[in-house]
Sequence to fold (225 residues):
Amino acid sequence: MSNGKLVLRIGLLFTAILYGKVGFADWTWDVLRKADQARGNMEGITWQVTVTFQSHSGVETITYDVKARGFDILAENTAPPKYKGNKVLMVTGNMWFHRPDLSKPVPISQRQRLLGNAAYGDIAATNYAEDYDPKLLGEEPVDGEECFVFDLKSKDKRATYDRIKYWISKDRLVGVKADYFTVSGKKLKTAGMRYDNRTRLNTAVRPFISKITILDELVSTDVTT
Fold:
């Protein structure tokens, strides 16, 4: 047995003994909740999202101002001019689209394509702690940073993805990488996250999402950030 495998198994055994079955579930929920907070799931926060899609045919960009109250969000298009004033509203997992020439909002899915590889759900705050059943797969580094690795299976058909393999930094408790899958297990895309922003939660200063890079598994040259 290699040293790497030995260390991994000891780590998992120690975690299970330390927390127990019930405590371990609480710990898992808390880790996911903290990762969610770094991606917008907190009270009274506002941020700007710029989605850029690069493909062989060129570059497209769209910008939103996003206001969050917990997992509920209101996102308003600010650019380009042809989309300015369009809005996306999400409340308790339900999402609507509205533009100035519509008499009332139109229901949409979080999974609906926004631009390039990005879905509408990608611009919203994540709520993985509530929307997914987690399983701890182990620990492994991403770009030299030790991470917990979770397998997340959707509990709600409204969730943006059926299944996610999610790497969460052990030290910072933020999601740094994700693989997205269909319910059949087909890999759709891979995303990497950066946290150059900072926000205050109670008295603590926490990292906050600054960039997500999404790579299409089927078309390797298409990149959405």
Residues 3-39+127-224 form a domain with the outer membrane lipoprotein receptor (LolB), chain A fold (CATH 2.50.20.10). The mean pLDDT is 82. Residues 95 and 109 are 6 Å apart (CA to CA).
